[in-house]
Design brief:
The chain is mainly α. The chain has one domain. The chain is built from eight helices and no strands. The two termini are 19 Å apart.
Length: 242
Amino acid sequence: MAILLGFAAFIATLLGGWFAMRKRDALHLILGFSAGAVIGVAFFDLMPEAFELGLTRFPSSTITLIIATGFLLFMFLSRVFLLHPHAIDDHHHHHHPSAVGWLGAGSLSIHSILDGIGIGLAFQVSPAVGAVVAAAVLAHDFSDGINTVSYILNHEGDNREAFGWLVVDAAAPIVGVLSTKFFSIPGPELGLFLALFCGFFLYIGASDLLPESQHDHPKVTTSVMTLLGAAVIYVAIQLAQF
């Protein structure tokens, strides 16, 4: 069952990425939605799970420190790699995504591996727990596909490169599920991993995708899309808990 749900996540991610590539002319709206979705995943999914798992062994101050470390680490790596940024309007004149685009897509893919690990480990606890975790993963995997494609296209990548990263991100949950057949991660330590990626996602959404979505485009429309992205993630995660 866990492996089948991993394949379901694969399909959901591909569908989201396909949507992003077909609607490239409305990239600012997709970026606005993606920013809200990424921030929503950080606040409504990763952060609560990090505290729930981590507090069984670590104090809340440690978990918040890891979240801050993730945010600041991604900021540092982004600024180191983004030495010669190009305007998004010129991205079609280049054929290779900047290192920060790869860094962002790679982070999203690693998070997708953790999604798969979460599904696999949850099923080790019980089928009921596994089903709830899988529902939450599927709820935002469509947005994951949009986020991955948007991040590459926003950093000088073309459709071929975006599709390559989309396949990597889509396959990541399957890899995560399969890996849990060979090892297990204690809950508190898994909580720290989730806290780290929470920080990554907060930076990606608030400091990268959100400003780009507002660049030379109507502020009201893109802001509404950002709110919609966050709201969709929140509602989906709440429904998954029932």
